[in-house]
Amino acid sequence: MAKATTIKIKLLSTADTGYFYVTKKNSRTMTEKMSMRKYDPVAKKHVEFKETKIK
Questions:
Q1: What is the rounded distance in angstroms from the CA atom of residue 11 to the CA atom of residue 52?
Q2: How much is the pTM?
Q3: Measured between alpha carbons, how far is 19 from 10 in angstroms, rounded to an integer?
Q4: Contact assessment for residue 9 and residue 32, using Cβ atoms and an 8 Å cutoff
Q5: Contact 24, 30 (CB under 8 A)
Q6: Is 17 in contact with 42 (CB distance < 8 Å)?
Q7: How far apart are CA 13 and CA 39, in angstroms?
Q8: Extents of the domains making up the chain
Q9: Would you call 17 exposed, middle or buried from its count of C-beta atoms within 10 A (0-12, 13-18, 19+)?
Q10: pLDDT digits 0-9 by tens, 15-50
């Protein structure tokens, strides 16, 4: 069976609040780790979110 093209990932806040977003990414086109600036409601500001595995 073929490997799925889209995988679920967890975007974890770098502000060490423990807040995270769950999103999908295409693992064939985006081979590097994903990072985005998004809003962290615990820190009450926009911070960098980095990709981690869903356990």
A1: 6
A2: 0.86
A3: 10
A4: no
A5: no
A6: yes
A7: 9
A8: 6-52
A9: middle
A10: 999 999 999 999 999 999 999 999 999 999 999 999
